[in-house]
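Entry 14. Structure prediction run on the chain below.
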Amino acid sequence: MYILAFETSCDDTSIAIFKDWNLIALDTKSQIKEHNVTKWVVPEVAARLHANNIFFVLENVLDMASLKIEEMDYIVCTEKPWLLPSLLVWLTVAKTLAKTLNKPFILIDHIKAHIFANLLERDLTELVFPSICLTVSWWHNEIYLWKSLFELELVWETLDDSAWESFDKVSKMMWMEYPGWPIISKLAKQYDWEFRSIFPTVLLEKNSLDFSFSWLKSAVKREIDRRIIEKWSLSDEDRIEISFEFETTVIEILKYKIFKAAERYGIRSLVLAWWVSANDKLKNEISKKAQEYWYSFIHPKKWIYSQDNAAMVAILAYYMIINNKKSF
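Output returned:
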């Protein structure tokens, strides 16, 4: 069984080919260079770039797999949520291919695909149910109760900004490049002093597992403004310290929430998904505490699987197909 998967919900043009549960070809064309000009993804620009890249990427994956498009058994595509102009480009192409080739067509939820990215290069038996799953992305920061393979319950979420968005905004405040989290993480590693907790660790009400990063973002802005007023500029040392303090504060919040959720529901299995799941410090901090308290913990096996990618779309489609799930 060959699965051709498309993922273009935001700014990455990605196509993958699976043979059953095995990834045999993946190609992703990034738009970071173009969006670095605005430090943000402009939906209309992203859609235009997808339209320019789509057939080039498709040809690449078919060549990598040494297959013809007629050999595909299923065509799958991200349907929602995210940037509508970007989604429409791929929905149009994928639907047209499915209709022309007379192949079954499956629509995939972007958020659920990111969660299923944890099953890439991993046997299903490695995932323990029920699990607490923390998703950390651009506009999404959520805690799910993952009861069984196709049973996900959203239990807590962000009330305003997400952690990922805050990384981007803080990077922009310090006149650095887009996306923000890899740059901030790189600078944070250069900091040699102890954590001073100069920013608030916002946990909200005592029993709340929701997230709020707008307060933290505002605190960072005030600290940057204060240093500029005092010194007339922001030095490299300032950027390193602010990056370290900000990243550490975000990680403390995320770590606290995922373990608090596990404690509340009496669950000892943790899962991490989406963009900031590629953050080494976050993974290490959760892993350390998980080992200490005998929790199981998994995250996407490769950095690319934490990004938007078509492999995660294909692996979710595979499990839907073999379990006769028409939708999820």
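DSSP finds eleven helices and ten strands in the chain.
Filed with the rest of this week's runs.
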